[in-house]
Amino acid sequence: MRPFRIHVPASSANIGPGFDSLGLALGLYLTLDVATAETREVVQCSPHLPEMPTGEDHYIFQIADQTAARWHKELPPCKVTLQSDIPLARGLGSSASAIVAGIELANQLCKLSLSPEDKLTFGNEIEGHPDNIAPSIFGGLMITTIAAGSVDWIQMPGVDADVVVFIPDQDLKTAAARKVLPTTYSRELATAGSSVSNVFVASLLSGNYPMAGKMMENDLFHEPYRSDLIPNYNEIRRHAKENGAYGTVISGAGPTMISLFPQGEADAIVPQLQRTFPAYDIKRVAVDSKGVNTTWG
Ligand SMILES: Nc1ncnc2c1ncn2[C@@H]1O[C@H](COP(=O)(O)OP(=O)(O)OP(=O)(O)O)[C@@H](O)[C@H]1O
Ligand SMILES: N[C@@H](CCO)C(=O)O
């Protein structure tokens, strides 16, 4: 087998009112270098990948095994060297990137010829919602739903804005951040919340970013319940707005926050934001437009 490399982008889900539906692929990557070996082995070379099982039990191998089994194949042994720019449990889709990596690993090793739709459907079954899985597979801005009985999606190439992330030095597991959400919403709230989401997506499509920013900051489905879990939630939103941001929201389930700024303006503003919030890693990140990508050595 020729060695190969799998590149999977990070993602930011929800983007405010698009709870469990919207996700943007980001130019931070989980990278797997895969080579022939007698037994399974994982070598991790990144501070973002802390203590984890390095053999049979590694999460990515578990997903690859499930994928192979689903298509009636067995995963052959291999050595995987992992590198990652994606901090774990920060709201940047690390779990989805690991799931997509496992699916793609099985796809290549077992020659499954999976389509992007196959990967999305299976990845969504594992993660339970498609808003991180879809951008990690396709790239760009993904608008998804599972409400019509399948995973249906529309892809936009990206956003005409600069994306800035505020990554705190603490984690928040998605499961914990989902526990604080209501199990049901009234018709009044669901109507209002989905109307905000409708206007948000329409604003992005029509290029009305001031309106998009206003809608971003008016989510009714998750942000009001999670804001107390997010350090400096109000301060970051206010400060970003004072410095020209269209809008700032929780990235995924948090605790990272993400802002959209007018295109070309973020690089000048980031140093000032970093001085105000020194405990954070604040940076402009590109939007990834390719999604999961395999290259052969
Ligand atoms: N590269 C990886 N290898 C193995 N396990 C991983 C990897 N990346 C993520 N995980 C698992 O996923 C968990 C984090 O998933 P979680 O859904 O809580 O956060 P997230 O995906 O980073 O954030 P969000 O879903 O809000 O964007 C980690 O604690 C770890 O168990
Ligand atoms: N839509 C998900 C994204 C994080 O996995 C949530 O907000 O819980």
UniProtKB/TrEMBL annotation:
Q: Where in the cell is it found?
A: Cytoplasm
> Gene3D superfamilies under this entry?
3.30.230.10, GHMP kinase, C-terminal domain (3.30.70.890)
Q: Name one GO molecular function term.
A: ATP binding
Q: State the UniProt keywords alphabetically.
A: Amino-acid biosynthesis, ATP-binding, Cytoplasm, Kinase, Nucleotide-binding, Threonine biosynthesis, Transferase
Instruction: Pull one GO CC term from this UniProt entry.
Output: cytoplasm
Coiled-coil positions? none
The similarity annotation says: Belongs to the GHMP kinase family. Homoserine kinase subfamily.
What is the protein name given in its UniProt record? Answer: Homoserine kinase
The scientific name of the source species is Lentibacillus cibarius
Gene symbol of the encoding locus: thrB
